Amino acid sequence: MSGEVEVTQVDLNKIRDFVFKETGIFFESKKDYYLKSRIKQRITDTGCKNFMEYFHNLVFGRKDGEAISLIEELTVNETYFFRDFPQLQGFAEKVLPLYLEQKRQENDFSLKIWSAACSTGEEPYTLSIILQEMIEDFDLWNVRIDATDIDRRALRQARLGIYGDRSMKDTPMTYRTKYFDKTSDGWKVLPNVTEYVSFEQLNLVDRVAMRKKRGYDFIFCRNVLIYFNEASRKRVMSYLYDALVSGGYIFLGHSESVGRITAAFVLERKGDFLCYKKP
Questions:
Q1: Which of 36, 44, 94, 141 is geometrically suited to a Cys-Cys bond with 270, CB 3.0 to 4.6 A?
Q2: Cα separation of 79 and 167, whole Å?
């Protein structure tokens, strides 16, 4: 294919609307350059002659075909182990102990956590490490960490469980020794971490799939809502609310708040961070 493929503003708007309909993610006009460059890349990669041919392939192709590939091209996967450490520390030291004590009194030793939009896996693996470090009677517990993301490539990386130094930059050396193996390819997560984590592809605005998510004690949905518009945020938060057990907690990114989205959660301050509890 010779020459650069033309992508007009009308074409951009078509893609913007398509992505929003499929994922709930809305790209504002300030992201037009980013959006256009990614679209051009996908047109080139698919061998399409022009935008019209590409868009037809996108809309009418297989459900697991180009639509998923485009979404993967557009989603951001910037993450690392122990990201936003103060919040994780608050979860581990302020929220978790009291919550587990209540479950012990009820003779309930099951613990179910959901890492929504888990990207390449650093967050759910971090949670597995935290639980093992913080729960003295860990062996008595039936722990399950479900990790989901829309991006198949990110999930493949997560299942592989090998990470570079950038992902490990905030990981304490004692944890590196205990939970990772240093290989020629990078830092390999050990089975004592991975055995509690399962990965699944999931679209957070997929109503049918989200209705199957139930019974979670804790949900981590951090740095995700910022990519949705107001209507999509309300929709996703409604699904997440239903997925939590009564008394369960949801943790969002530091720049995210449910205050303007829903009044269903109870806001709690735990030290230097905020979390939201389902009554």
A1: 94
A2: 7
